[in-house]
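[job 4471] stage=fold_predict status=RUNNING
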Amino acid sequence: RRKSGLRNMSGGMQISLIVRGQHPPGDIAGHLRDDLELVRRAEKVGFDGIVKGSHYSAHPFQSVQQIPFLAYAAAIAPRLRLICGLVLLPLHKPLDLAEQLATLDIMSNGKLVFGCGIGYRDVEFKAFGVPRAGLGKRFEEGLEAVKRLWTEDSGRCRDPARRAARRLLVHQPAQHADDDRTPDGTL
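[job 4471] inference complete, writing structure tokens
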């Protein structure tokens, strides 16, 4: 690590900084500049990664969205891992999410860590037109679809809809889902 920065105490543990990024109403561009300065400083002092959460309709707070923020972070702090903390999976279409995250992983030379969750805020479900009933099943199906889009070729998918979606996916992440990078094999 850097002589004035953090030290990896256990050899394998990594330390990341979360940039919550929810600010009171006002100068959203100024708040973004402050958040990006945190990213630059995190890299400078030796953090291993940067974490950005995701919420929608966060009134009265203002926040920029996760994927564009992490893409910019990749450009200004190329050593840092980019950690989605968390993508609210049931709110997204698996094909769109798989493509966007694969693109981010390619842009960052394989430094994306994909974290996802179900979500809990009624306003987000209502805004996306997603019923709360069946969230667990929708989450599991969405995660399975994203993982398959990243790892399977269309010939191995039994489901015709998935096979068609797989043919639509133009690129896969720089990393492979069977890498040893995370305990469950996800990116």
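[job 4471] summary: Residues 180-187 have pLDDT under 50 and may be disordered.
[job 4471] exit 0
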